[in-house]
Every structure is written in structure tokens, then in C-alpha cells.
Amino acid sequence: MRRRDFIKVIAVSAAAWPPAARAQKSSSVRRVGVLMSMASDDSAGQAYSAAFAQGLQQLGWEIGSNIRIDYRWGSGDTERFRKYAAELVGLSPDVIVGTAASIVRALQEASRTIPIVFVTTIDPVGSGLVASLSHPGGNATGFIASEFSQSAKLLELLKEIAPGVNRVAVLRDPTVPPGSGGFAAVQTAAPSFGVELTAIDVQSADAIERGITEFARAPNGGLLIVGPTSSMTQQRDLVVTLAAKYRLPAVYHSFVFAGALLVYGTSSIDQYRRAADYVDRILKGEKPANLPVQAPTKYELIINLKTAKALGLTVPQSLLARADEVIE
What we know:
The chain is of the alpha/beta class. It has 12 helices and 12 strands.
């Protein structure tokens, strides 16, 4: 089964779970909270939550029988992150899964004792979430989404698929480490690829539209989306629409950008499955302070030939041969 088809299946499965499947049946039921950065109707978010639940089931946990999962959906809103963090802590769960650095920070502000497992997070040490990767030392541990150097790899891939590009707009959120660190990595790599950079902040839809519209007035431009960040995920449809409107080749960090020309990044589905293993270990008595933060183990390269054709690009065979999925 192709990756995107699996995502559709797993998202539909998650949406189809009956309310009774989340009901507590006995006093021995363990309780897990999950605070997602996306909206509840986001298909990618549904796929992630379903992958996490499947991971728990494969480890012997039966939802509604010996484990209960309480979900909250932040919709990319930091105020909601804080509200739902406090709400989940108030439920006294055995462990909470947080899906972004800003969410984990809100959870730690609400509790320094309830174990937290994070996923799709960049630079947890620099963000102050853990003391070190090998010895987190507090109540949080988890899985790094990517390294800052991955942003430089995105620039390399953009030049490979669109060699005529010599101007690149980097969409980033400068208020968070993935945005500032990712942009710094691109700045370091830019001279070797002979490109001129323009930074576009993604903290509002208006700023994105103004920035891309202005950038597109000159020729030979391309877009680079660094992250992942909650703000970028929230505005992803707008970015894809503007890239198509102005015929700008664009590469992205995450497969949630439907219609993207090229995507390269960590497999989030894989991270949520691995998070289930850490939750299982914590429920069985291990402490997050002693569980090392783990680096990504699976990356995905996805190329959309339909988008390439619309942009008048011919994708090199050498690039197609490396792709994990080619969308036709």
C-alpha cells in the first residue's frame, strides 16, 4: 500500500472509532493524554493519532479495556495549547504525548511530575525541554523531528529539481528554533548553490501572501519551507495555493503539504508509532528522565510529477530513483 493511501485508511479508521472505544471499563485502566498541534478534522492529525493507537495495540494495550486515550486538538493556537495542557493535567493521566515544543513547554508549565513523551520536536535541549539528549533528566523525553541541517538538504533538492532557480524565499517562523535554526542552516549553504535568499515569516496568512506575492514579481524564484512548526502547518494550504498561482517550484519538510512539488522529511507516522513504545515503557515503570531522546530513523522523499508538469519541470531520473513515493 502506498504511503498516502495508508494515511487515508488509517485516518478513516481513527474517525470511525466509536465513543465507547474510549470509555473506561475498570479501575485498572491506564490513562494517556494526547495534545495535538493540529485541528481535530485534519486528516494528517487523524492519521498520526491512529498510528499511535495502533502502536499501543501492537504492544498489548486495548483501547477501552486496559487503556484510555484523551485527545485534545490545539489547531496551531498557542492559547489553546496552554488551555488544553492544563485540562489534560487536570485529568491526572499516567503519561501525556505532546506534538510540538510549544505544547511540551505548556505541559511542563502545568506539571513537572506527569511523564511527557514528545514527537515531531526540534532541538529539545535548546528549547529547554530536556537537560541533554542522552539523559533528559526531567519529566519529558521523546523523538526529534529533524536536525537543522535538513533545511540545507531541502535547498540541495530544490536546485536539483529546478536548477534554474537562483532566488529562494525561505518560509520560516523566526520565533521558534526550527524556524530560526533552519534558516541559519540554509544561509550557510546558500553560497555554494549560488542562490539569493529572502526570508518570509509565516506567523500570519497576510504576511505569507504579501511576502510570496512580492517575491514572485521577479523571475527564477523558488520556495523553501523550513520547520516543521505549528504556524507553518496551519498555513500549509495557503502556501501550496500561492506556489501554484505564481508557478514557483517549492520543497517542503512534511508530507502534510498536499500537492507539493517535493517533500523531504522525517516520517511522522513512524515517530508516533515509536512514541507508543516509550509510553508503554513508562506505563510499565520506566522514568522519562532515564529514556534518551531519539533521533529520526526514517526519512521520506516524495515527488509530485503532476505538479512538476504544471511547472514545466523535468524531474531528473537520478532524483526519481531515490524517491520513496512518486505521485502521478
